[in-house]
């Protein structure tokens, strides 16, 4: 549901003030930017929340500043005071989203036991599918378009993290604690199976029906995926 309409605290001439501020910043490139006021932070958060709603439904190309302003309950000039371009709003959302997406994998601990660590990772990813469906759709839309706005983050931040965790998995395999397999495709498989419950939730609920399509579907999915992955990763005796 769109947030309640909020009368903007910024006057209608806000974009002109922004242009003056930009000119001043250009004249003094090394000057530190002023910290945002509480009202400015609240306005930015309101815009980003509205943009998440719009982008997750229409994608980047299908979304407009006017749509975001309408959902945010503010005028277009006031929105442009905080974010002059749609691309800037999207970039802020995607940067925060990637941090959220990486968090569950970052928690995989090399000093822990492999099966509890992998089980916890599966659970955390399913919790994200349950709690962040809009963010998941936004991420999926960006991938379908070839990730033009976050490809550098994927090639650096995401790749470095996956490399690190793949080495942890290989170490457990070499110690005989896990069956040998490709650690990268193992991680990809966990992504695919857990994120399915966010990106295709309508399909999941339609197939499961009223009896099984409630909140319990995530617990059912967790138990199944734990069995699937952990059984497959159990070392076999020669």
Query: What would you give as the CATH superfamily of the largest domain?
Result: Tetracycline Repressor, domain 2
Radius of gyration: 22 Å
Structural class: mainly alpha
- Count of all domains: 2
Key traits:
238 residues; mainly alpha; Arc Repressor Mutant, subunit A; Tetracycline Repressor, domain 2; 2 domains
Structural commentary:
It is a single chain. By secondary structure, the chain is an all-alpha fold. It has 11 helices and no strands.
Write the layout of secondary structure elements.
Layout: H1 14-27, H2 38-62, H3 65-72, H4 76-82, H5 86-106, H6 114-131, H7 133-144, H8 151-174, H9 183-199, H10 201-212, H11 216-233
Helix pairs in contact: 1-4, 2-3, 2-5, 2-7, 3-4, 5-8, 6-9, 6-11, 9-11
Summarize the structure.
Helices cover 74% and strands 0% of the residues. The chain is built from 11 helices and no strands.
């Amino acid at each position: 549901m769109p947030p309640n309409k909020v009368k903007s605290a910024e006057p209608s001439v806000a974009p002109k003030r922004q242009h003056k501020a930009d000119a001043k910043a250009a004249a003094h490139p090394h000057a530190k930017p002023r910290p945002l006021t509480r009202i400015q932070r609240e306005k930015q958060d309101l815009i980003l929340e509205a943009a998440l709603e719009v982008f997750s439904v229409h994608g980047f190309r299908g979304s407009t500043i006017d749509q975001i302003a309408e959902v945010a309950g503010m005028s277009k000039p006031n929105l442009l005071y905080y974010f002059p371009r749609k691309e800037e709003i999207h970039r802020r959302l995607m940067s925060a989203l990637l941090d959220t997406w990486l968090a569950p994998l970052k928690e995989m601990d090399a000093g822990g036991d492999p099966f509890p660590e992998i089980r916890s990772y599966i659970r955390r990813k399913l919790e994200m599918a349950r709690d962040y469906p809009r963010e998941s759709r936004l991420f999926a839309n960006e991938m379908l378009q070839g990730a033009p706005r976050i490809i550098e983050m994927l090639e650096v931040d995401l790749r470095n993290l996956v490399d690190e965790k793949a080495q942890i998995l290989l170490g457990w395999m070499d110690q005989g604690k896990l069956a040998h397999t490709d650690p990268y495709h193992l991680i990809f498989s966990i992504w695919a199976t857990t994120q399915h419950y966010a990106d295709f939730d309508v399909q999941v609920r339609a197939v499961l029906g009223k009896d099984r399509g409630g909140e319990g579907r995530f617990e059912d999915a967790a138990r199944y995926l734990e069995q699937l992955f952990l059984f497959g990763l159990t070392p076999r005796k020669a």
